[in-house]
Amino acid sequence: MKIKTIYHFIFFIIIFTLLFELILGFYRNYRRKTTYDKALKKSREVKKPLLVIGSPNAGFLGSIKSHYGCGDVCVDLVGCNKCEKSIKGDILDVLKNLPDNSHVIFESCVLEYIEKPKKKLIFNEIKRVSNGLFFEVRINPTIIANILDYVPYFDSLVENGLN
After folding, report:
1. Where are the domains of the chain?
2. Strand partners, 74
3. What is the DSSP string of 122-134?
4. How much of the chain, in percent, has pLDDT values that exceed 70?
5. Residue 102: pLDDT above 60?
6. How far apart (Å, rounded) are the C-alpha atoms in residues 36 and 40?
7. pLDDT tens profile 104-153
8. Cβ–Cβ < 8 Å for 75, 87
9. What are phi and psi of 88, to 5 degrees?
10. C-alpha distances in angstroms, 116 versus 109, 113, 122, 123, 147?
11. DSSP track, the chain
12. SS3 at position 88
């Protein structure tokens, strides 16, 4: 009897976590849309092109419906396949080739995946290119990603690959 109760409890926790993650995903997409709208409005006000970092169609929910636009140009490591003007490449390389104070920048949930030394270089380039006109959305709040941050094995798995 106790084993069934434990299994039911674990099942409840898993279902609750997945449902809560889904709700947080919808909230993240709401933040993506509203922040993108602010960036787009600012780019039109200051008459500078909007550079979007991160494909609007990436991720599970993004593949169903994008929640932000492509801007004037979209940059992503794997490309922004549904955007009219897309640059496929490393964001640091792309930013280094842009002039100072030339773009408004919107970035959504990309920089979390970049190692810290390179992330600092990217932030410096973002500041240079955007002159402070930088709009960003982070992945947090989230449960699963935060749990994985505390699992040492997961870090080594990501660093060393699945082999």
Report:
1. 2-160
2. 52, 86
3. HHHHHHHHHTT-E
4. 82
5. yes
6. 6
7. 999 998 888 888 889 999 999 999 999 999 999 987 755 555 554 544 44
8. yes
9. -95, 115
10. 15, 9, 10, 10, 19
11. -HHHHHHHHHHHHHHHHHHHHHHHHHHHHHHHHHHHHHHHHHHHHHT-PEEEES-TT-SHHHHH--SS---SEEEETT--TT-SSEEES-HHHHHHTSPTT--EEEEES-GGGS-HHHHHHHHHHHHHHHTT-EEEE-S-S-SHHHHHHT-HHHHHHHHH---
12. strand
Give the tokens for residue 141: 């709040």
CB atoms within 10 A of CB 36: 23
Do you know the residue count of the chain? 163
Whose structure tokens read 């409890």? 9
